[in-house]
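Can anyone check this?
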Amino acid sequence: MKRQLILEDGHVFIGEGFGADKVMSGEVVFNTGMTGYQEILSDLSYCGQIVTMTYPLIGNYGINRDDFESITPAINGLIVKEYEHEPSHWREEESLGTLLEAKGIPGLAGIDTRKLTRLIREHGTLRGRICSLDVNVEEVVQQLKDTALLTNQVAQVSTKDAYHAPGRGNRVVLVDFGMKHGILQELIARQCDVVVVPYNTTAEEILRLGADGVMLSNGPGNPTDVPEAITMIQELLGRVPIFGICLGHQLIALACGATTSKLRFGHRGSNHPVREISTGKIAITAQNHGYTVDHESLKETRLELTHVAVNDGTVEGVKHLDAPAFSVQYHPEASPGPHDANDLFDAFVTMMETEKKQSVLA
């Protein structure tokens, strides 16, 4: 079944449809990962976006029950060069196309993904629509131009109610802005007693839960669209250890007086090198974000730059000089990988233990 991708700049890509036979629009982005498409399509940070995979063959190992980062994917479409209809892997339970159809997500295969990626790199992310061939292209282009970017993605994907993942260790309140399940798994692996709460939970409610530490998760969209979270972080700083990942990192920066801005095409993939400033050590990291903390704005805050992106020098990590708080732009849980930065969860546990000991001595 022939389908097409129409971009707001007038470019049209015609290919073969798979997955759901559904018209969907969204911000078109690209991911450079060679594997991990199941984790990518179920990463809620892609809410409202159409994801282009730059690796040419996608779907060859199918879908399994264990590698989801959320139960209900929030992407608006998946674009690949070549889609494998008959996957082969010992853990495979269904095909990628079958999953997309069940979840109402359209797929498009057989287009020139290299050309599409170059367009995004040169002109920035573009709004696009996956649809049938019998539409008026000019009308669709105008509709896309007139469509504003989403501002409520976090509210869409955050848990609506708090829930408990019991453990015998430190009580961690995990604020869900669109959390990858890999974050929860890493905390559970360290025996943490985790309470997952909605994005708009107040500082007072978090402290009432007896938090030994607060984890701020990843999530979609512009961090300035979540002002209630900024207020919550400001009220928690210095009272409880905080660790922020991706959107959580940006929110910590905003809470401390820094600013953020939109990247031209973002960082999305599992092969982004990051340098730790204190040691010079390079970690290969997984990333998925369209916004960044402005480097210059850190000078007016009590945040210290700890990590930078090797490719473009953007901010990848900060720590607070006075309060027990730190954050990184990349994903240390790194599902499906790499796992170079996984020890940051250990650093968070150590921070909680240290703060508890100091509070006892005080």
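Reply from J.R.: I decoded it. The mean pLDDT is 96.
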